[in-house]
Amino acid sequence: MTLHIDHDICLKEPNCPAALSCSTQALFYDPSDEKLFFNADRCNGCGLCVQKCAYRALSLFETTADLKAYLKKINEVRNDFQTKLEALLRLK
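RE: above sequence
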C-alpha cells in the first residue's frame, strides 16, 4: 500500500484525526517538519486514515504505479483548468 498526502490541502495538525486513527502508526505527524508523513512498511491497508481525513487530503493506493497514474491525471486536470481559466481571463 502507498498513501498520497496532498500537503496543499492538509492542515498539518499535530492532533490530526487521520494520523491518530492509524493503529500501526504508518501515518504520523513530524513536529520538526510540521507535516504528516507515511511509512508504507507499517501500513496494513485498512483505509481508516482516509475515512478520518475531513479535508480529503489522503488517498490510499494498492501500488506505486496506481499512485503515479493518479498523480499524472491530477496534474493533467490542473493544467487543463489553468489553461481554460487563463483563456477566460484574457476574454475580459
